[in-house]
């Protein structure tokens, strides 16, 4: 499946049972809600998906399960976050074997690679596969920035590097990328609290977090702004912002899983060493979630806009 690299692509949470096994029943419940809301792709095994705690076999199970369940309705991407080039190439091979439509690829984990090392890493992974690739550029959390000059080298060498998950937190970077590369490098914003701003500045899509609990509202914002109904998109986005801020937090996994509980789309089960929220921290997150649900907006028929 080719990927258009546009629209809302949930970075879905990984669901666990009380005994710390994959909870595929609840996982499918959430994926179905995403599809019903009109998302444009699914991203598995990212930060929000607790990637660093998943075994290789669990990642493969999630990929195969999602590919089978989605059944071609939207592309399925698996995140690659490995410590070595060898490991990343092997992960890309397995992703294709398991039916993934594309890859989201992080720079090397743990080792802070230099610019030349980072370029060679991405080139090696890209040249090892025919799957289309979205580079995840998040220097705030992962301490390695893929600069525009580095992207220039990568795009010239690797036709299957097609998109960037833009998480630099610098809104003007959307314009810089568009000025430099046009549509050769598609932009999906990766920061929930800058999502609408990024889309209005020309980003093509949104790899979203709170969409896991609020899929319809997330897709509505995207479709409304795309249709030029900016005022309506802004109104929903202003309501959404306190919830979106739960994503830019070290406890984003616990926060969003708690929100999924309140919207009937998940459980609080996380994989240790993570633990569910407790005490005043939990009380504050619940307050934000309950306030959001209490004032949840009535959405226009945004799905019709996708067919216009």
List keywords for this structure.
alpha/beta, eight-stranded parallel beta sheet, globular, single chain, TIM Barrel, 308 residues
What would you note in describing this structure?
By secondary structure, this protein is α/β, with parallel strands linked by helices. It has a single domain (7-307), classed as Alpha-Beta Barrel (TIM Barrel). The chain contains twelve helices and eight strands. It has an eight-stranded parallel beta sheet with strand order 1-8-7-6-5-4-3-2. The longest helix is centred in the last third of the chain and has 16 residues, at 279-294.
Nutshell version of this structure?
45% of the residues lie in helices and 11% in strands.
CATH evolutionary superfamily: Aldolase class I
Number of β-strand runs: 8
Mean pLDDT: 97
The overall number of domains is: 1
| CATH class type | Alpha Beta
Residue share in helix: 40-55%
Under CATH, the topology is which? TIM Barrel
Secondary structure category: alpha/beta
Estimated radius of gyration:
18 Å
Low-confidence stretches: none
- Order of SSEs, N→C? EHEHEHEHEHHEHEHEHHHH
From the N-terminal CA to the C-terminal CA, the straight-line distance is 23 Å
* Backbone shape: globular
Give the strand content.
5-15%
How is the biggest beta sheet arranged? 8 strands, parallel
Q: In DSSP terms, counting alpha (H) and pi (I) runs of 4 or more, how many helices? A: 12
Organism: Geojedonia litorea
Family: Belongs to the DapA family.
Protein name: Dihydrodipicolinate synthase family protein
Keywords: Lyase
């Amino acid at each position: 499946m080719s990927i258009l690299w546009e629209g809302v692509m949930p970075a879905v949470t990984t669901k666990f049972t009380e005994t710390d096994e994959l909870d595929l029943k609840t996982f499918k419940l959430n994926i179905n809600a995403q599809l019903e809301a009109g998302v444009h792709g699914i991203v598995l095994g990212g930060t929000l998906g607790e990637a660093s705690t998943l075994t290789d076999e669990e990642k493969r199970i999630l990929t195969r399960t999602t590919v089978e369940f989605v059944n071609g309705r939207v592309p399925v991407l698996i995140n690659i976050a490995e410590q070595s080039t060898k490991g990343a190439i092997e992960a890309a091979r397995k992703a294709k074997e398991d039916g993934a439509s594309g890859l989201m690829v992080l720079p090397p984990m743990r080792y802070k690679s230099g610019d030349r090392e980072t370029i060679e890493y991405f080139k090696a992974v890209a040249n090892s596969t025919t799957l289309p690739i979205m580079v995840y550029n998040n220097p705030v959390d992962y301490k390695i920035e893929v600069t525009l000059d580095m992207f220039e080298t990568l795009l010239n060498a690797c036709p299957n590097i097609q998109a960037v998950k833009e998480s630099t937190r610098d809104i003007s970077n959307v314009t810089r990328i568009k000025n430099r590369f046009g549509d050769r490098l598609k932009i999906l914003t990766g920061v929930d609290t800058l999502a609408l701003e990024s889309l209005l500045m020309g980003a093509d899509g949104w790899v979203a977090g709170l969409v896991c609990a609020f899929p319809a509202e997330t897709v509505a914002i995207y479709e409304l702004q795309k249709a030029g109904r900016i005022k309506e998109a802004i109104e929903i986005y202003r309501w959404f912002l306190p919830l979106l801020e739960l994503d830019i937090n070290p406890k984003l996994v616990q926060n969003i899983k708690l929100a999924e509980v309140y919207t009937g789309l998940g459980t609080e089960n996380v994989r240790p060493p993570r633990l569910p929220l407790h005490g005043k921290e939990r009380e504050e997150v619940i307050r934000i979630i309950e306030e959001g649900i209490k004032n949840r907006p009535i959405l226009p028929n945004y799905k019709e806009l996708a067919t216009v």
